[in-house]
């Protein structure tokens, strides 16, 4: 079942919807409660980031709450590069129209089954849902369309939403009155009333904020209070989300570590940028720590190569860049006989790449299977790709990490461009403004380290065992031209480098990783089908081809469609 299937909310119990020990008739048989009790008795407990932070957040809310997990003598956080973003989601505040609709749907179902005579539950539901739909329509008219993420300060017309928000609030107040009249008649109704009260209060806060915009002079926005949060709105196909996100969780996370005590270990293959942990420590408020970094057990130089094609720099035109990319990588896909991950930085790029690749597959008789994010659940897509053996998988952020395809099924990983956070992202922009005000560089302290860590995750999909071989392609020549290029290169695995740009050969050698005098190989793809390396090619580069199982092939000519890039056979 796809992750965005509307059935999920109907079969999911959350912290808000759980009736708790005193009210739930199935408490003794609850598998979540049983798992927690088992954890309390265990010497080693393994949980995901969300459950861990959720437990810590519960403890932070009240000294009388023990949370879901016991205190530990040692806490090990694996994939720790994700911890800051997970913590932000828990320590922030969100009002979602989808959450309100789901609550009203649940209330209607419980009301009709438990206290049918208590109120006109259908009417209460319809009033709120109609209000929500009207709000989404009004939001689209002021530019809050699907996929939009905007800080309040960038929405001067936000005050125009006030009438639609007021209609929803009045409908919620009518629902609240009905719930008060039925208080004590059923435990489920009482629990829903508590949840409804919380949403009503959150709604009130946002309504008051939007009222400030309504009263502001036309074309202006009211001053936002400096409370350490950035407030922004996100529009998706199913909801409007009103967010208050902390600019930093360093203080909150430092409080968690102080409260929990014990020793802490943070580990990840992508915890640093250019072997520097400053960005990670700053995010989590870590001031003193013992740092260590170890080389990978894989021999990246022997197992893989890194190719930067010659193409225009990616600009704001995602569709045009994607067209260039597919045109350039198609010979590589053919050489690899499918077996490709195409990792994109946006859903727009995913859709366009899928369309272009599908057209080329059809024109060539559909030699390889195509798997595209959103067509099936992530786990199913990966399994089908693995079993197919010659597939092409196109995906965005969720496929950059946590995906493990060992063996023959994957030989080519392509990234469309450097995964910089969009300059329009309201949270990144607000954090950048704070850094600028302090005289610091948002790009080098935030944007670049984040992008490098994400890129390393993407590159890490290629070599998953000591037998794997393949090519990593980054379709972004900016790293060969910009000052930050060496930081990017030095942070990636030590793949044998290739580039079409002669002037960039000096960017790749790095102390301790390449042999003395090593240069990047210069390849020049030509539409005619033959590619000639630049003269003076270092023998180390040529030896990669021989080790790949083609000792008889000329080291001077690379034919379009050749598969020796991707052979796993050793000499």
UniProtKB/TrEMBL annotation:
Keywords annotated in UniProt: ATP-binding, Helicase, Hydrolase, Nucleotide-binding
InterPro entries: ATP-dep_Helicase_C (IPR006555), DinG/Rad3-like (IPR045028), Helic_SF1/SF2_ATP-bd_DinG/Rad3 (IPR014013), P-loop_NTPase (IPR027417)
Keyword Lipid metabolism included in the entry's annotation: no
Ranges for domain Helicase ATP-binding: 1-139
Keyword Hydrolase attached: yes
Any one GO MF annotation of this record: nucleic acid binding
GO biological process, one term: DNA repair
Cited Gene3D superfamilies: P-loop containing nucleotide triphosphate hydrolases
SMART domains, sorted: HELICc2 (SM00491)
Pfam family membership, one: Helicase_C_2
SUPFAM superfamilies linked to this entry: P-loop containing nucleoside triphosphate hydrolases
PANTHER family registered for this protein in UniProt: DNA REPAIR DEAD HELICASE RAD3/XP-D SUBFAMILY MEMBER, REGULATOR OF TELOMERE ELONGATION HELICASE 1
UniProt-recorded name of the protein: Helicase c2
Organismal lineage: unclassified sequences, metagenomes, organismal metagenomes
């Amino acid at each position: 079942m796809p992750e965005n299937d509307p059935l999920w909310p109907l079969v999911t119990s959350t912290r808000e919807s759980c009736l708790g020990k005193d009210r739930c008739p199935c408490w003794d048989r609850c598998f979540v409660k049983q798992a927690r009790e088992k954890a309390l008795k265990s010497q080693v407990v393994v949980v995901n980031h969300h459950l861990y932070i959720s437990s810590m957040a519960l403890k932070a809310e009240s000294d009388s709450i023990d949370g879901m997990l016991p205190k530990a003598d040692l806490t090990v956080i694996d994939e720790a590069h994700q911890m800051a973003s997970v913590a932000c989601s828990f320590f922030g505040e969100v009002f979602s129209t989808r959450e309100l609709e789901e609550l009203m749907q649940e209330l209607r179902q419980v009301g009709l089954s438990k206290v049918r005579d208590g109120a006109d539950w259908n009417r209460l539901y319809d009033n709120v849902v109609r209000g929500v739909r009207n709000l989404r329509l009004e939001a689209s008219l002021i530019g809050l369309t699907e996929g939009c993420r905007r800080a309040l300060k960038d929405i001067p017309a936000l005050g125009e939403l006030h009438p639609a928000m007021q209609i929803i609030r009045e409908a919620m107040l009518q629902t609240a009155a009905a719930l008060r009249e039925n208080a004590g008649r059923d435990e489920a109704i009482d629990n829903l009333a508590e949840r409804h009260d919380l949403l009503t209060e959150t709604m009130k806060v946002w309504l008051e904020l939007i009222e400030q915009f309504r009263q502001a002079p036309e074309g202006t926005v009211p001053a936002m209070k400096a409370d350490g949060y950035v407030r922004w709105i996100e529009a998706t196909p199913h909801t409007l989300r009103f967010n208050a996100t902390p600019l930093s969780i360093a203080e909150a996370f430092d409080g968690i570590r102080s409260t929990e005590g014990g020793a802490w270990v943070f580990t990840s293959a992508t915890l640093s940028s250019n072997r520097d942990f400053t960005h990670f420590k700053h995010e989590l408020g870590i001031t003193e720590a013992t740092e260590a970094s170890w080389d990978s057990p894989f021999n990246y130089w022997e197992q893989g190569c890194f190719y930067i094609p010659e193409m225009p720099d990616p600009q704001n035109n995602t569709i045009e860049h994607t067209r260039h990319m597919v045109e350039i990588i198609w010979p590589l896909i053919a050489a690899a006989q499918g077996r490709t991950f195409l990792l994109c930085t946006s859903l727009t790029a995913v859709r366009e790449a899928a369309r272009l690749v599908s057209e080329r597959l059809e024109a060539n008789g559909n030699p390889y299977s195509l798997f595209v994010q959103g067509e099936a659940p992530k786990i199913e897509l990966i399994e089908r790709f693995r079993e197919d053996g010659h597939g092409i998988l196109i995906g965005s952020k969720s496929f950059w990490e946590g995906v493990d395809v060992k063996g023959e099924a994957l030989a080519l990983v392509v990234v469309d461009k450097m995964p910089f956070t969009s300059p329009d992202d309201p949270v990144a922009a607000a954090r950048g403004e704070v850094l600028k005000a302090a005289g610091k560089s948002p790009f080098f302290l935030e944007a670049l380290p984040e992008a490098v860590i994400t890129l390393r995750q993407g590159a890490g999909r290629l070599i998953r065992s000591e037998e794997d071989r393949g090519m990593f392609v980054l379709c972004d020549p900016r790293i060969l031209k910009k000052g930050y290029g060496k930081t990017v290169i030095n942070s990636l695995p030590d793949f044998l480098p290739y580039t079409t740009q002669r002037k960039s050969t000096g960017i790749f050698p790095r102390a301790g990783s390449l042999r003395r005098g090593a240069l990047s190989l210069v390849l020049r793809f030509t539409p005619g089908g033959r590619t000639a390396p630049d003269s003076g090619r270092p023998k180390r580069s040529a030896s990669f081809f021989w080790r790949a199982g083609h000792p008889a092939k000329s080291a001077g000519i690379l034919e379009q469609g050749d598969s020796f890039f991707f052979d796993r056979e050793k000499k």
